[in-house]
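We emphasize that the prediction below concerns an isolated chain of 220 residues; any contacts that depend on oligomerization or on bound cofactors are therefore not represented. The input was used exactly as deposited, without trimming of termini.
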Amino acid sequence: MATAPVPLRIDFVSDVVCPWCAIGLTSLEQALQRLQGQVAADIHFQPFELNPQMAAEGEDIREHLQRKYGMPDAQLDENQERIRQRGAELGFDFDFNARSRTWNTFDAHRLLHWAGIEGKQRELKHALLRAYFSEGKNVSDRDTLVAIAASVGLDAERTRTILASDEYAADVREAEEFFRRNGINGVPAVIIDQKHLISGGQPVDVFERALREIAVAKSD
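Result of the prediction step, given as a token string:
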């Protein structure tokens, strides 16, 4: 008789302007495809802001990264090329020429919280990552966020109403504080069944091996 897939809760803590989060999510999902029939994943996207104090107008991306990490131009170019290649290997398109700024992401996280209630969280997460990294869009601009939400089937007027209010702000702040309090200070952080942590944009093989080991241990 066939064995039922092992259910695993996955909390994917990340930001929508974090390139390694895009890589990590793509790798995780490809690992789960390999484990189809063995693992039944329930993914919850949790908020993390890389730059919670960033102003609404955002910042020049190169100036921001150089100030934050002390990177000279050559090192920054090298890092971006490494990220672009990792994305290409996974089928994710990073276009570093399409974007020149980075943005505040709090409103995006509020929409992701709502999308979770509406059963569209995963679709919206992918759309936001694609909008920022592949298309260079401003993911703090409210008209842009309404269009992105509508593209995955979320109601445009309801989206606009949420963005014009502080709806779900407390929920996002509470979730951010919970993960910070529990030691998450870098993303992506992938938490399996609320106790196993996989950090960073790991290769597909690493996620597959970890998920398989966790599933086997859980089914014993």
